[in-house]
């Protein structure tokens, strides 16, 4: 969609009665959507580094057979907390940070609908993160039940499990408030002339994602509350001896858990749907079909949860239903991949860093999608369930999928945020280093899984050594590339003060970029739209 703006669009400056507060008050009491978006992004990157250190400790242990640097109990605590920190602390808050920054700019709104609630929803996250990290200091250590917190393991863990349950409740409350804010902002605060079917794709993907959050976060809250009651109040929701059912926990968790996968990937689809048209210098191919595909993914995501449970002994009729429903959900996803490729077809392509990450996203996400189709086949899934094949699959979808899209979005929009251009050569080094080391790290895991190496084991037979060593080398390379991004790409942009240190960004740094966000100066003013722009 192209958006033109009437000449009388006002951009407020940073002076006058509404000048931004300064010092610590600007951040602690932030109500401006840009500042809160920045806080979310800083928090999520910090949690990415915390979760990444845990991952590298896991890979260091697996470099050789036998126990090298830790006890198996601590190894299982690391695998559990790595997953929780990455999902709830890194990926989800990062996309909310992008939503805070970009949605008001894209739809011509002055800010988010509920500015103080926006501040509160962010400041719930740091205490929750402290609870997660503090669980390592509790008697018995952090939870070691896997990130899914399956009963009955989770009902037998020490007090660290209670901290995890409280942290998930707090993060869930933050997500629900953020989702309400996004829904109200998109539905009520669009610029005059911007109908729903003229909205940018990022706004569409976030509208659907926010509805998913409102639907499934309360389900997760119910699951962990039942866990808490089983642990301390004598109930037997998941205790077979008291008439409960441990498999019930899996049903409830995965009814949250599978839509959650799309909560972490739909905003990524939105980002890619902006980057590819901009660097193909063409409008997005099949905008309407993209919108319908997003809605179809959201609806179907509620009908596939038990494909995580093929190994629990469910009836064949149920296995068939969930198998076919899972295959069906690949159709709207395939529509999106086809539309991105069709957008690039015969376009005037250029491959700056945002486009490199977007094309890399399509490549690795499609690979993850194919392994997902394999796991959708119940007989095959029973064979590789609980092996490293599953680890390979979801890291291709989540690390390569969500994270590569986030980097594409950062390189694409950061000139608008900071008023500075990143150094292109350093961006390309970050991309190629990340893409190559990621595939070195995670591709061998497919072979490990097919050969039968189980997940969450601190030791393994000697025949798995070579592939594990390759995977560990790749994982350390991937981790180092993200530190390189922080020190050599992001910080120079954010900290540069003079014209010499970093190139100043024009209002529209990318020739093919379209949308309201490119009609405001770079960096975007503290108060963006004094009067709503009129979209023609």
Automatic annotation (TrEMBL):
Q: What residue intervals traverse the membrane?
A: 39-60, 80-101, 122-143, 163-189, 201-229, 261-279, 291-310, 322-342, 354-378, 390-413, 429-450, 470-495
What is the protein name for this chain?
Cytochrome c oxidase subunit 1
Pfam families under this entry?
A: COX1
The record's Gene Ontology cellular component field reads:
plasma membrane; respiratory chain complex IV
**GO process terms (BP):** electron transport coupled proton transport; oxidative phosphorylation; respiratory electron transport chain
UniProtKB keywords? Cell membrane, Copper, Electron transport, Heme, Iron, Membrane, Metal-binding, Oxidoreductase, Respiratory chain, Translocase, Transmembrane, Transmembrane helix, Transport
* Reaction equations catalysed: 4 Fe(II)-[cytochrome c] + O2 + 8 H(+)(in) = 4 Fe(III)-[cytochrome c] + 2 H2O + 4 H(+)(out)
Membrane topology, as annotated: Multi-pass membrane protein
Pathway involvement?
A: Energy metabolism; oxidative phosphorylation
